[in-house]
Design brief:
Subunit structure: Monomer.
CATH class of the largest domain: Alpha Beta
Oligomer: single chain
CATH topology of the largest domain: Rossmann fold
Shape: elongated
Keywords: Aminoacyl-tRNA synthetase, ATP-binding, Cytoplasm, Ligase, Nucleotide-binding, Protein biosynthesis
Distance between the termini: 72 Å
Family: Belongs to the class-I aminoacyl-tRNA synthetase family. Glutamate--tRNA ligase type 1 subfamily.
GO molecular function, one term: tRNA binding
Protein name: Glutamate--tRNA ligase
């Protein structure tokens, strides 16, 4: 099946996990079908849109591996939107309205108080030319609404199945503001027609907009794309995403050391019938993608799952894979293959190695121990076996200490770990002391 999809972010901020999931689903669907993925920059809001954010969006998508086949900016297509506007006006489908926002709000409240739906009453359609001239003489400028048919609008959604929106139950949508600027709806439809978009894939919060958009497609003589509305993300607790998580940017995740394929593996599988597990590539994810697998329940985004996937990647990295990022850390240039092999399995991300670099290549802060533990550590050096330390030394040493002090289990091992590494958890101590060497071990016991 030939398909062409688009991802249409506004350059008013960086990408976050919510809109990246939409981009990813579009990309996976298109590539799985041998189709095209278009990046459309929705920058009609000229005041809030910036080149910096546009570049940032492209950087984020490129970092994730979501390459686009074509891209364009809405700010360069106003002439096309103006043509569509003239066509709709000529056909009587776009009409001028002069109410202020306060007046519209008052109408909505009155309708609700009378038990009626707050649907716009089409007062603008009833205005005579004389009345319009009088309003404009008062300094009012019209906003423009699209006249809906008032009939049910039906389509088969690729996620939600058969859908029907009764356009008599919704207000005629405003397509052009009083200041002459376009809202999202008209430019989006014009672009989809001109770009020959075959599938519109987006969040389910856009379902109610679809009836009006389908009618605009028809009014402009375009072919209505197939639609897929996916459930939105929620937090691991089942509640709506917190403000912090909802705005968790891809840029920040990258800066925090999260791997792109970990993000893609999670976002591609949550909310589907597939298990969440690490995949080797976007191409593999694309080959496994199907709208049939997407459930109707909200998709749960769990940071712990993301960190688990990232840890799996980190554990599999070779020293050469990690070297560049290690070098960016304090003392990272001193890291060795032996160091990386020892600590990697205890890390969730490469940057976590920053905790272990001073342990092996610098100094650590002494941990305050209980008096009995401090006395135990003070005498531990006497029982350290002679000669170079190797991986067998730890067992011989702790057996001697156990016989001498009667300590065992955590009471034996934890004070040693804290004294030698400053950390309560970490790699196996037989390997730790072998890498530390005799001089460092004795110095930290003193």
């Amino acid at each position: 099946m030939s398909c062409k999809v688009r991802f249409a972010p506004s350059p008013t901020g960086r990408l976050h996990v919510g809109n990246v999931r939409t981009a990813l689903i579009n990309w996976l669907f298109a590539k799985g079908q041998g189709g095209e993925f278009v990046l459309r920059i929705d920058d009609t809001d000229l005041e809030r849109s910036t080149k910096e954010y546009e570049d940032g969006i492209k950087e984020d998508l490129s970092w994730l591996g979501l390459k686009w086949d074509d891209t364009f900016k809405q700010s360069e297509r106003f002439a096309e939107y103006d043509k569509a506007t003239q066509k709709l006006k000529a056909e009587g489908l776009l009409y001028a309205c002069y109410e202020t926002s306060e007046e519209l709000d008052r109408k909505r409240k009155i309708a609700l108080s009378r038990g009626r739906p707050p649907v716009y009453d089409r007062a603008g359609l009833k205005l005579t030319d004389v009345e319009k001239a009088k309003l404009e003489a008062e300094g009012r400028k019209p906003h423009w609404r699209f006249k809906l048919s008032g009939q049910p609008c039906e389509w088969t959604d690729l996620v939600r199945g058969p859908q029907s929106i009764d356009t008599a139950s919704i207000s005629d949508p405003v397509l052009i503001r009083a200041d002459g600027s376009y809202l999202y709806t008209l430019p989006s439809v014009v672009d989809d027609i001109d770009a020959k978009i075959t599938h519109v894939v987006r969040g389910e919060d856009h379902v109610t907009n679809s009836g009006a958009q389908i009618e605009i497609f028809r009014a402009l003589g375009g072919t209505t794309p197939q639609m897929a509305h996916t459930p939105l993300l929620i937090g691991a607790d089942g509640q709506g995403l917190s403000k912090r998580l909802g705005s968790l940017s891809i840029q920040q995740l990258g800066q925090d050391g999260i791997e792109p394929i970990a993000i893609a593996s999670l976002l591609a599988k949550i909310g589907t019938s597939d298990a969440v597990e690490l995949k080797d590539s976007l191409e593999t994810l694309a080959s496994e993608f199907s709208f049939d697998k997407i459930g109707r329940a909200p998709a749960r985004f769990d940071e712990k799952e993301l960190m688990g996937l990232n840890a799996e990647i980190t554990h599999g990295l070779t020293f050469e894979d990690a070297k560049e990022r290690l070098n960016a850390l304090p003392m990272g240039d001193k890291a060795t293959p032996e160091f990386w092999t020892l600590v990697a399995e205890n890390l969730q991300k490469v940057d976590d190695a920053a905790v272990w670099l001073p342990v092996f290549f610098g100094e650590i802060e002494k941990v305050d121990l209980e008096a009995e533990d401090a006395a135990f550590i003070a005498g531990a050096a006497e029982h350290l076996p002679e000669g170079a330390i190797n991986e067998d030394t730890w067992k011989e040493w702790t057996n001697a200490l156990k016989s001498e002090t009667g300590r065992k289990g955590k009471g034996l091992f934890m004070p040693l770990r804290l004294a030698l590494t400053g950390q309560a958890h970490g790699p196996q101590m037989n390997k730790v002391i072998a890498l530390l060497g005799r001089e460092k071990v004795l110095a930290r016991l003193g």
